[in-house]
Amino acid sequence: MFPHRLTLLEVQERSTARIIAIRRLTVVSVILLFVAMCAAMSFSCRGGVASLMLSRGARASSTLRGGEMMRTSSRSLISPPMNRRAGPYLNELKLRNSDGSPSSTMMLSAVATGFQTKQSLRGYYFSPRYYAPLRSISVQAGGGTKAAPIQEKQDRNSITPRDQDYSQWYLDVISEAELVENSPVKGCMVIRPTGMAIWESLRDELDKKIKGSGAMNAYFPLFIPQSFLSKEAEHVDGFAKECAVVTHHRLRTRPDGNGLEPDPDSKLEEPLVVRPTSETMIWYMFKNWIQSHRDLPLKINQWANVVRWELRTRPFLRSAEFLWQEGHTAHATDTEAIATAEEMLGVYQQVARDLLAIPVIPGKKSSIERFAGAAETYTIEAMMQNGWALQAGTSHFLGQNFAKAFDVQYSTDNEEREHVWATSWGVSTRLLGALIMTHSDDNGLILPPKVAPVQVVLIPIVKASGGEEVVQCVEELAQKLKEGGIRVHVDDRPLRPGNKYYHWERRGVPFRMEIGQRDLKKGSAFCARRNNGAKSPLQIKNEDGSWTDVVSLVNKELDSIQSDMLAAATERRDQKTFRLSSYDEMKQKLAKEEYGFFLVPWAADDNNEEAIKADCKATIRCYPLEFQKEAEGKNCFYSGKPATHMAIFARAY
């Protein structure tokens, strides 16, 4: 009996079966390896997490969290290295159907390089209608062949709580609101569009008041001859360590061909200082412009950037370069000059209070804190939420110091030659730092309506049916609000409402109005305030379908928000203002981090002031104008001598 012989067909069938088995084993091995790799990958960054569950044959929903993706035919996500600290980057992520066509259910394919666990990502999503940063991605492995939807999560911990780390909270709020970004130049900031829009609102309002005082705008050179600063001794001592100096006017290629260097033949005859302030340049020009008493008073204002080389910087509060306005005036008498300095201090106080909802205390600086070259410095001091002080603006009576340094004289009625009396005054982007730290919370930026780039955001809640009516209503409402002078934005991105709320909450928009089909039937909009989170309906249409006086209603809400924010800030300041009679009391409170304004009787003494600063880091913020009469009959809280002033001590930025 011979063994069974296999036919050629049977041999081919068995060979094919073995090949199929090997292929299946190979595919399974690859899948297991891929799953293991994916399981080791987890990428996160501030702003929230969107989990993409991957598996063989798995499909994923096209929507990512936080309003950072939208449904559209364009599905590319590019992650350029925008943040140096982010480490490795996701180079490209594409969501598509298996046939490459767009759909609400997408196949996921990712091209990545150098991934490490827990590395933050910064991405940018492009579509024909929308451009916004991708806050975060988490990539994890998934099992089975069932579709794995993207899990949405909004990370509310992306902003450090104030009571945990106030300094980091401040930086987080700025970052989440996209106000400022660090530049390649250390200490210099890039003011992003939202931050610039806030500054422009402040600038425009203040410019009107400056012109109302009789001043006119001008512009002076960025570069100042070094010899100019030497003409006013106190002035040069005050700014010498902060000056950036230009010594050459061109570069050349290095002899070895590696990079550039200053051309020795281009050395300037006199070094030029990059403007730290413009007193010296302006007073040089005043000498040409002032000859007679008929030329006085002369009031000039300049909107410009200045450079003061700071070693320790913080956005808005202290940077190597910042934006500001500086006013300079010349007068025939000291009385007139002092009145102008006090007038401008009042203007700054009014703008801070009425526009920024920041209550400030006007006062005079001590001799140590006085502006370099000034006879008297006036200031407005604001209290931040942590109890620290921030100098929000200054106005200086310069006496005749600069007039004598640059020999600026005028002919009197009696044909006698006399030196003029001078003032200078200014505020800067530092006010934006005060704005942020006065009002914002752990959920992000809070803006007073008067200075907010967007005062009202409209969010249509659109479902499968009846969406056209909602959209039409929102568009009509937006038009009415715009015609009424209200800065409004319609967020019609195809995202979940919660993602939109999160987006605008971070950016501090004062008032949110949502309109869905139910609201439309009631003729109302569901509204939320950013400052306190209060929510309530607002009637926008009458029973007959006609519009209510919606502009007046919304303006009433905005005015209420503005006044409530000022009231809250004022109450907080008053609660943290302590009247003390001894230095030990203040020192004990500071040791326990009970910061605030310490209003105390004080006998002016530079040595004692320096000793207190060295001992507990508190400084005299000002001699508050409204409390000076209280010093009579009291003794200094530090030396025991008869008090000369009432002073406010505080830790300060």
Strand and helix map with partners:
Elements lengths: L7 H32 L9 E6 L5 E2 L14 E3 L13 E5 L8 E7 L11 E4 L4 E4 L3 E4 L9 E3 L12 H11 L3 E3 L6 E3 L1 H20 L3 E2 L5 E3 H4 L3 H7 L4 E5 L2 E3 L6 E3 L4 E8 L4 H11 L8 E10 L13 E11 L2 H21 L5 E5 L11 E8 L5 E11 L1 H5 L3 E3 L5 E3 L1 E8 L1 H10 L16 E5 L6 H17 L4 E3 L6 H10 L4 E5 L1 H6 L1 E6 L5 E5 L10 H26 L1 E3 L3 H9 L5 E6 L3 H11 L2 E6 L20 E6 L3
Parallel strand pairs: 1-8, 12-18, 26-27, 26-28, 31-32
Antiparallel strand pairs: 1-9, 2-5, 3-4, 3-6, 4-5, 6-7, 10-11, 13-17, 14-17, 15-16, 18-19, 19-25, 20-21, 20-33, 21-22, 22-25, 23-24, 28-29, 29-30, 32-34, 33-34
Describe the 3D structure.
The structure is a single chain. The chain is an alpha+beta fold and 653 residues long. 31% of the residues lie in helices and 26% in strands. It has 15 helices and 34 strands. It has an eleven-stranded mixed sheet, with helices on both faces. Strands 2-5-4-3-6-7 form a six-stranded antiparallel sheet, with no helix packed on it. α3 packs antiparallel against α7 (334-354). The termini are far apart. Mean pLDDT is 83; it is low at 40-154.
**End-to-end span in angstroms?**
104 Å
Q: Name the strands of the widest sheet in spatial order.
A: 12-18-19-25-22-21-20-33-34-32-31
Give start-end ranges of low-pLDDT stretches: 40-154
Which structural class matches the secondary elements?
alpha+beta
